[in-house]
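Entry for the shared binder. Reason: the reviewer on the internal report wants the predicted structure included alongside the sequence.
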Amino acid sequence: MRIVTWNLWWRFGPWEERQPAIRAELAAIDADVVLLQEVWAADGRDQAEELGEALGLSVARTTVPGGGPQAFGNAILSRWPIVDTEMVVLPGDTGDPSHRSALTAIVDTPAGPQPFTVTHLAWQYDASALRSAQAARVVDLVARHRSTDPTAPPPVLAGDFNAVPEADEIRRLTGLSAPYRAGLVFTDCWAAVGEGDGDTWSRDNPHAAEALWPRRRLDYVFVAWPRPKPLGNPRSARLAGVAANDGIVPSDHFAVVVELDDRQT
Protein backbone atom coordinates (compact mmCIF):
# COMPACT_ATOMS: atom_id res chain seq x y z
CA MET A 1 0.00 0.00 0.00
CA ARG A 2 1.37 3.38 -0.98
CA ILE A 3 0.64 6.42 1.20
CA VAL A 4 1.58 10.05 0.58
CA THR A 5 1.26 13.07 2.86
CA TRP A 6 1.73 16.58 1.50
CA ASN A 7 1.23 20.16 2.62
CA LEU A 8 0.02 21.93 -0.56
CA TRP A 9 0.79 25.50 0.62
CA TRP A 10 -2.79 26.72 0.21
CA ARG A 11 -3.04 29.71 -2.20
CA PHE A 12 0.35 31.14 -1.32
CA GLY A 13 3.08 32.03 -3.78
CA PRO A 14 2.39 31.38 -7.49
CA TRP A 15 -0.57 29.24 -6.52
CA GLU A 16 -2.32 29.11 -9.88
CA GLU A 17 0.84 27.97 -11.64
CA ARG A 18 1.45 25.39 -8.91
CA GLN A 19 -1.84 23.53 -9.41
CA PRO A 20 -0.82 21.59 -12.56
CA ALA A 21 2.50 20.71 -10.89
CA ILE A 22 0.70 19.37 -7.79
CA ARG A 23 -1.68 17.33 -9.94
CA ALA A 24 1.15 15.92 -12.08
CA GLU A 25 3.24 14.98 -9.03
CA LEU A 26 0.34 13.17 -7.35
CA ALA A 27 -0.42 11.34 -10.59
CA ALA A 28 3.22 10.23 -10.80
CA ILE A 29 3.24 9.06 -7.16
CA ASP A 30 0.07 7.04 -7.81
CA ALA A 31 -0.68 6.54 -4.10
CA ASP A 32 -3.51 4.41 -2.80
CA VAL A 33 -4.29 6.94 -0.06
CA VAL A 34 -3.39 10.65 -0.23
CA LEU A 35 -3.39 12.81 2.92
CA LEU A 36 -3.28 16.55 2.23
CA GLN A 37 -2.95 19.73 4.28
CA GLU A 38 -3.50 23.41 3.43
CA VAL A 39 -6.16 22.43 0.92
CA TRP A 40 -8.05 25.47 -0.37
CA ALA A 41 -11.68 26.10 -1.18
CA ALA A 42 -12.70 29.45 -2.67
CA ASP A 43 -14.83 31.03 -5.38
CA GLY A 44 -16.98 27.94 -5.71
CA ARG A 45 -13.95 25.70 -6.24
CA ASP A 46 -12.57 22.97 -3.98
CA GLN A 47 -8.98 21.86 -4.52
CA ALA A 48 -9.64 18.45 -2.95
CA GLU A 49 -12.58 17.72 -5.25
CA GLU A 50 -10.65 18.89 -8.30
CA LEU A 51 -7.70 16.65 -7.45
CA GLY A 52 -9.97 13.71 -6.67
CA GLU A 53 -11.75 14.07 -10.01
CA ALA A 54 -8.47 14.41 -11.94
CA LEU A 55 -6.92 11.38 -10.22
CA GLY A 56 -10.03 9.20 -10.06
CA LEU A 57 -10.00 9.03 -6.26
CA SER A 58 -12.72 9.20 -3.59
CA VAL A 59 -12.57 12.37 -1.47
CA ALA A 60 -13.14 13.26 2.18
CA ARG A 61 -12.31 16.73 3.44
CA THR A 62 -12.75 19.03 6.40
CA THR A 63 -15.83 21.24 6.41
CA VAL A 64 -17.31 24.28 8.11
CA PRO A 65 -20.58 24.27 10.08
CA GLY A 66 -23.29 23.78 7.50
CA GLY A 67 -21.24 21.33 5.47
CA GLY A 68 -19.29 23.54 3.06
CA PRO A 69 -15.60 22.87 2.46
CA GLN A 70 -13.16 24.44 4.88
CA ALA A 71 -11.24 27.25 3.15
CA PHE A 72 -7.95 26.21 4.76
CA GLY A 73 -8.32 22.54 5.49
CA ASN A 74 -7.27 18.92 5.24
CA ALA A 75 -8.35 16.17 2.87
CA ILE A 76 -8.03 12.44 2.31
CA LEU A 77 -8.18 10.94 -1.19
CA SER A 78 -8.49 7.19 -1.64
CA ARG A 79 -8.35 4.57 -4.37
CA TRP A 80 -10.84 2.55 -2.35
CA PRO A 81 -14.27 3.55 -1.01
CA ILE A 82 -14.45 5.83 2.03
CA VAL A 83 -17.17 4.43 4.28
CA ASP A 84 -17.14 6.88 7.20
CA THR A 85 -15.49 10.12 8.34
CA GLU A 86 -15.08 12.24 11.46
CA MET A 87 -13.59 15.71 11.81
CA VAL A 88 -12.44 17.42 15.00
CA VAL A 89 -11.41 21.03 15.54
CA LEU A 90 -8.10 21.49 17.33
CA PRO A 91 -7.55 23.95 20.20
CA GLY A 92 -5.81 27.28 19.79
CA ASP A 93 -3.36 28.89 22.19
CA THR A 94 -6.19 30.03 24.51
CA GLY A 95 -7.81 26.60 24.52
CA ASP A 96 -10.67 27.78 22.34
CA PRO A 97 -11.32 26.16 18.95
CA SER A 98 -8.87 27.20 16.24
CA HIS A 99 -8.96 27.05 12.45
CA ARG A 100 -6.88 23.86 12.58
CA SER A 101 -8.46 20.43 12.38
CA ALA A 102 -7.99 16.70 12.02
CA LEU A 103 -9.94 14.35 9.77
CA THR A 104 -10.35 10.59 9.97
CA ALA A 105 -11.62 8.54 7.03
CA ILE A 106 -12.42 4.84 7.27
CA VAL A 107 -11.21 3.32 4.00
CA ASP A 108 -12.47 -0.05 2.75
CA THR A 109 -9.03 -1.46 1.84
CA PRO A 110 -8.48 -4.99 0.50
CA ALA A 111 -7.23 -5.93 3.98
CA GLY A 112 -10.40 -4.60 5.59
CA PRO A 113 -11.65 -1.26 6.96
CA GLN A 114 -8.70 0.92 7.95
CA PRO A 115 -8.73 4.37 9.59
CA PHE A 116 -6.56 7.12 8.10
CA THR A 117 -6.18 10.43 9.93
CA VAL A 118 -4.69 13.66 8.58
CA THR A 119 -3.83 16.79 10.55
CA HIS A 120 -1.83 20.02 10.51
CA LEU A 121 -0.55 21.38 13.84
CA ALA A 122 0.39 24.95 14.83
CA TRP A 123 3.44 26.26 13.02
CA GLN A 124 5.04 28.73 15.44
CA TYR A 125 8.62 27.93 16.40
CA ASP A 126 7.82 28.25 20.12
CA ALA A 127 4.43 26.47 20.09
CA SER A 128 5.49 23.03 21.30
CA ALA A 129 3.04 23.09 24.23
CA LEU A 130 0.17 24.03 21.90
CA ARG A 131 1.12 21.34 19.40
CA SER A 132 1.17 18.82 22.24
CA ALA A 133 -2.38 19.79 23.23
CA GLN A 134 -3.46 19.52 19.60
CA ALA A 135 -1.73 16.15 19.19
CA ALA A 136 -3.56 14.84 22.25
CA ARG A 137 -6.87 15.71 20.56
CA VAL A 138 -5.74 13.98 17.38
CA VAL A 139 -4.74 10.81 19.24
CA ASP A 140 -8.18 10.73 20.88
CA LEU A 141 -9.68 10.83 17.38
CA VAL A 142 -7.45 7.98 16.20
CA ALA A 143 -8.32 5.93 19.29
CA ARG A 144 -12.08 6.29 18.66
CA HIS A 145 -11.74 4.64 15.27
CA ARG A 146 -9.17 2.00 16.15
CA SER A 147 -10.58 -1.50 15.82
CA THR A 148 -10.77 -3.73 18.88
CA ASP A 149 -9.86 -6.66 16.61
CA PRO A 150 -6.09 -7.24 17.07
CA THR A 151 -5.84 -8.60 13.51
CA ALA A 152 -7.42 -5.53 11.87
CA PRO A 153 -5.40 -3.09 9.73
CA PRO A 154 -3.75 -0.50 11.99
CA PRO A 155 -4.61 3.20 11.96
CA VAL A 156 -2.41 5.49 9.88
CA LEU A 157 -1.78 9.07 11.03
CA ALA A 158 -0.09 11.59 8.76
CA GLY A 159 0.33 15.29 8.15
CA ASP A 160 2.35 18.40 8.81
CA PHE A 161 3.17 18.33 12.51
CA ASN A 162 5.47 21.39 12.37
CA ALA A 163 7.77 19.66 14.85
CA VAL A 164 11.08 17.85 14.56
CA PRO A 165 11.43 14.21 15.67
CA GLU A 166 13.17 15.28 18.91
CA ALA A 167 10.29 17.56 19.96
CA ASP A 168 8.20 16.60 22.99
CA GLU A 169 5.01 16.26 20.94
CA ILE A 170 6.61 13.78 18.51
CA ARG A 171 8.37 11.85 21.27
CA ARG A 172 5.01 11.29 22.96
CA LEU A 173 3.52 10.01 19.70
CA THR A 174 6.35 7.55 19.12
CA GLY A 175 6.69 6.26 22.68
CA LEU A 176 10.06 7.88 23.39
CA SER A 177 8.26 9.79 26.14
CA ALA A 178 5.02 9.17 28.05
CA PRO A 179 2.38 8.51 25.37
CA TYR A 180 -0.83 10.49 25.04
CA ARG A 181 -2.80 7.26 25.55
CA ALA A 182 -1.54 4.06 27.15
CA GLY A 183 -1.39 1.24 24.63
CA LEU A 184 -1.36 3.51 21.57
CA VAL A 185 1.88 4.78 20.11
CA PHE A 186 3.08 5.14 16.53
CA THR A 187 5.94 4.03 14.32
CA ASP A 188 7.56 6.98 12.53
CA CYS A 189 7.89 5.48 9.06
CA TRP A 190 10.81 7.66 8.00
CA ALA A 191 12.76 6.80 11.13
CA ALA A 192 12.07 3.12 10.47
CA VAL A 193 12.93 2.83 6.78
CA GLY A 194 13.83 6.22 5.29
CA GLU A 195 17.34 7.04 4.10
CA GLY A 196 19.00 10.36 4.87
CA ASP A 197 17.64 13.20 6.96
CA GLY A 198 14.24 13.35 5.22
CA ASP A 199 13.91 17.12 5.58
CA THR A 200 10.57 18.22 4.18
CA TRP A 201 11.26 21.90 4.89
CA SER A 202 14.47 22.91 3.14
CA ARG A 203 16.13 25.99 1.72
CA ASP A 204 16.86 23.83 -1.31
CA ASN A 205 13.20 24.52 -2.09
CA PRO A 206 12.98 27.93 -3.79
CA HIS A 207 9.70 28.63 -1.98
CA ALA A 208 11.53 28.30 1.38
CA ALA A 209 14.90 29.75 0.39
CA GLU A 210 14.45 32.90 2.50
CA ALA A 211 12.80 31.20 5.46
CA LEU A 212 13.87 31.86 9.04
CA TRP A 213 13.58 28.17 9.96
CA PRO A 214 16.50 25.80 9.33
CA ARG A 215 16.17 22.52 7.49
CA ARG A 216 13.65 20.40 9.35
CA ARG A 217 11.69 17.17 9.08
CA LEU A 218 8.17 18.38 9.80
CA ASP A 219 5.94 15.98 7.83
CA TYR A 220 5.25 12.41 8.91
CA VAL A 221 3.50 9.16 8.16
CA PHE A 222 2.88 7.22 11.37
CA VAL A 223 1.45 3.71 11.78
CA ALA A 224 -0.18 2.74 15.07
CA TRP A 225 1.37 0.18 17.41
CA PRO A 226 0.68 -2.48 18.52
CA ARG A 227 -0.35 -3.98 15.18
CA PRO A 228 -0.50 -7.45 13.59
CA LYS A 229 2.83 -7.99 11.82
CA PRO A 230 3.57 -7.77 8.98
CA LEU A 231 0.37 -5.84 8.19
CA GLY A 232 1.11 -2.12 8.27
CA ASN A 233 4.87 -2.43 8.67
CA PRO A 234 6.69 0.34 6.74
CA ARG A 235 8.79 -0.98 3.85
CA SER A 236 10.17 2.19 2.27
CA ALA A 237 9.98 5.98 2.58
CA ARG A 238 11.07 8.70 0.18
CA LEU A 239 10.51 12.37 -0.57
CA ALA A 240 8.52 13.65 -3.56
CA GLY A 241 7.69 17.06 -4.98
CA VAL A 242 11.38 17.94 -4.77
CA ALA A 243 12.06 18.73 -8.43
CA ALA A 244 10.44 21.41 -10.57
CA ASN A 245 7.61 20.38 -12.87
CA ASP A 246 7.52 22.61 -15.96
CA GLY A 247 9.71 25.04 -14.04
CA ILE A 248 7.52 25.09 -10.91
CA VAL A 249 8.27 23.40 -7.59
CA PRO A 250 4.75 22.38 -6.47
CA SER A 251 4.80 23.42 -2.78
CA ASP A 252 6.96 24.90 -0.03
CA HIS A 253 6.96 21.46 1.64
CA PHE A 254 8.23 18.24 0.13
CA ALA A 255 5.88 15.26 0.20
CA VAL A 256 6.56 12.01 2.07
CA VAL A 257 5.75 8.76 0.23
CA VAL A 258 5.62 5.54 2.26
CA GLU A 259 5.06 1.94 1.23
CA LEU A 260 3.27 -0.14 3.89
CA ASP A 261 3.12 -3.90 3.99
CA ASP A 262 -0.42 -5.06 3.20
CA ARG A 263 0.14 -8.77 3.79
CA GLN A 264 -1.97 -10.49 6.41
CA THR A 265 -0.86 -13.47 8.49
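Summary line for the report: The first helix runs from residue 15 to 29.
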